[in-house]
Amino acid sequence: MKHLEESDVGISFYISQLPGFRGILKQRYCDFIVNEVDSDGNVVHLTSLDAPPESMEKNETKISDQSNKGYASEIELFRSLVGDSDVECLKGLIDQVASGIEDGVSPIVLSSSSDKSHRTAVHNFFKENLKFLVTDTIDGPDTSSKCIRVRLNSGGSHNNGRNSRKRKDRRDKPFDSRGSDNWSEHVGKFLRFHLYKENKDTQEAIGLIGKMLGIQPRSFGFAGTKDKRSVSTQRIIFSNLDHT
C-alpha cells in the first residue's frame, strides 16, 4: 500500500527547515484514557476488585456507653426550652437507652408548637448535646402547628410499606431512610468506590449498577459524567450501601 506524500496532497514548499513529524489519528474508544483527579491531586485508578476490610472503629456515641453518663446539665438546659411534661418524656427516653435495650425503644413526641424558630432551637439542642438521639418534625394536632419527634439514633431504617416514602405518611417514616436496611453502625455513613468503564456513558453505567442492586441511579453521587468513547475511571459515592 502506497503512503501519501506531501506532493500528493498539494504540499510543495515549507516555510521553515524544521524536521517534520508523523502521527496516527486516534479513532477507537480505547485510544482515549480518562482518569479523574481527586481533591488531593491523586489520579484515580482501579487498583483492586477486593472489598475493603471491615473497620472496627466504634462510634463515639455508642449506645451501650450511655449508661455510664449522667445528663443532669443537659436536662436542665432542655427545661429552659420546653415544659415539664416534655422534660419528663425525655428523661424516660434516656432511661430506656441507659438500660442497654436498643430494640423496642419507643420515640417520644414533644408538645406541639407553631413557632418555627423555637422548633429549630429544640432540633439544635439535640444535635449539640444528645447526639445519640435524632429528631424530625411531624404534623401537629391542627394545621397550624408541628410536633418534634425524638428517637434513638440506631443508624437503621425500616420500610413500613410501599407508600412509606410519601410525605403524607411521614409519621411512619424513619428519620433517615436512605441506603441499605442492614447497615453496620461501626462503619462510615458513605461508601466510595472507583468506577472503571469502557465505551460506556457514566449515566448508563450507573443505571446498570443500580438495576443490579435494586436502587435508583439518583442515589449515586459523582463529579460529572466522563466521555463515553473512552476508557475512564472515576469515584462514585453512595449512602449506606453494603459493600459485601
From TrEMBL:
Example of a GO MF term = pseudouridine synthase activity
Biased amino acid composition, Low complexity: 153-162
Basic and acidic residues bias locations = 171-180
Where is the stretch described as Disordered?
Answer: 149-180
The alphabetized list of GO BP terms reads: pseudouridine synthesis
Which InterPro entries does its entry note?
PsdUridine_synth_cat_dom_sf, PsdUridine_synth_TruD
- Put simply, this protein is called Multisubstrate pseudouridine synthase 7
